[in-house]
UniProtKB/TrEMBL annotation:
Keyword Amino-acid biosynthesis part of the UniProt annotation: no
Protein name, UniProt field: Tyrosine--tRNA ligase
UniProt cross-references to Gene3D superfamilies, sorted A to Z: HUPs (3.40.50.620), RNA-binding S4 domain (3.10.290.10), Tyrosyl-Transfer RNA Synthetase (1.10.240.10)
Superkingdom: Eukaryota
Keyword terms: Aminoacyl-tRNA synthetase, ATP-binding, Ligase, Nucleotide-binding, Protein biosynthesis, RNA-binding
Sequence similarity: Belongs to the class-I aminoacyl-tRNA synthetase family.
UniProt GO BP: tyrosyl-tRNA aminoacylation
Enzyme Commission code: 6.1.1.1
Catalytic activity: tRNA(Tyr) + L-tyrosine + ATP = L-tyrosyl-tRNA(Tyr) + AMP + diphosphate + H(+)
SUPFAM superfamilies for this protein: Alpha-L RNA-binding motif, Nucleotidylyl transferase
Amino acid sequence: MLRYRSIHSIKRTQNIVFASVFRRNITRISPSISDILTKHNIEITEDDLKHDFKEPLISHLRKRGLIETCVNEEQLRKDVETKSLGLYCGADPTAKSLHLGNLLPLMVLLHFNLRGHRIYPLIGGATGEVGDPSGRSTERSSMRDDIRKDHIERISQQFLNFFINAIKYGKTRNPEINNLQIGSQELKNNKEWWQNMGMLEFLAIYGKHIRVNQMLSRESIKNRLTSEQGIGFNEFTYQILQAYDFYYLNKTFNIDIQVGGNDQYGNIVAGVDLINRMRKVEESKFANEVYGLTVPLLTTSNGVKFGKSAGNAIFIDKELTSSYDVYQFMYNTTDEDIKKFMYKFSLLPTTIIDKIIDLHNTDKKVRLGQRILAIEMCDLIHGDGEGLSNYIISEILFSRNDIRGNFKADDVLDAFAKQNLVKDLSKEQLFSTNIVNILHEVSGGEKSKSEFKRMIKGGSIYIGNTKEGKITDSDYSIKADDLIEDKLLLLKAGKKFYVVKAI
Ligand SMILES: N[C@@H](Cc1ccc(O)cc1)C(=O)O
């Protein structure tokens, strides 16, 4: 039963009753998102919170659209519910930062981790030197050693931060996660085992178990063989390196599952094959089955690869892509893609996502779905509260909705403080002089007083973010009423906002 309606259809009195009933359940969720849900009368019940964890994990991941192919699915469905499994997913240090496209396999690791399984993100310190031909039509250009090292350090840190943050984020979206026994997380670098491997040793022990005809039949190789440029021996042998990684990790750390993008299918299967062949040779008896999982290649409804904006990747490193840009990117999601992306990247209960989407569909212009999706993505990557801050900033910049009454003064101050855009001024100072002096002061002398006077004449100075706040008199002095919650003053000069904290 849907216990919510569009805000437009609820009478004020009803609204208050609903809100107070709902708040009991919702307050256990972060205000970053619960305030919006409450405002739209979306109730979260205990059943909603428990629902996803009652589903068998593989079914749940399929429902969330996180699985494209699954090697040995039938057995995996059983093992995942009864055993503690280890999973790994690798990324080569080809760029300074992971990007949104890399997050999908990490979400699979995350869901397993929440249910107690061990996860091992792996940085390809060794494989990065060779270059994966998967999904590429041309050869990778080589990279300087010092640059690769720098990438390795950065991506290793991003891996660790991602999982720490994503789990924290998860707890703010579903308190049920606090009751779970979360699995361990350990970072690996395949340079660790490759740097001591001798070529002779490798060929003698493993070479004969790796079949060249199978290597030639992989999609990524076939395409390149027929290309004019051909394929270098390094890229041709890449799949062996990844196959051996899986074998080594399975034998040494009991890692049972490799997760990757759909273009990694060939490399993952190569690993499963090598493990099975070596087990026969080594006569290992009690070993578990091994598994491969690939996630779909994410494309948008416009047919472009997800995670790129004007051809550039959206990075998870804040210094390369600000969280505000992540928000804007996700806010531009088409209506058709919202559910798909929310299922994949949010840890909100799926029943709540369904309610959000139903409500979104009643009035798409409101862009409720885009807003929540953008908040979810920012909070997942950069921490709870980031999304709300960006939501507030973009509402102030682009919307005519009065922020007074819609946002708490502290949240607005917090949002702008993150961008270093809040200026503290004492109330005595604020109330004792005219608006031109205040503007001059808060702009840091960026514009002269006469320029501000001219702007007032031209009608482009406002208090607040609505038309009603237009200032027409250069001698106007700020009143207590102009402050929001007695502490926030928002000034708009042309396209620019100045945020003042009255102390
Ligand atoms: N080949 C993977 C990275 C990787 C490297 C080593 C592995 O063992 C696993 C995965 C990629 O390019 O995305």
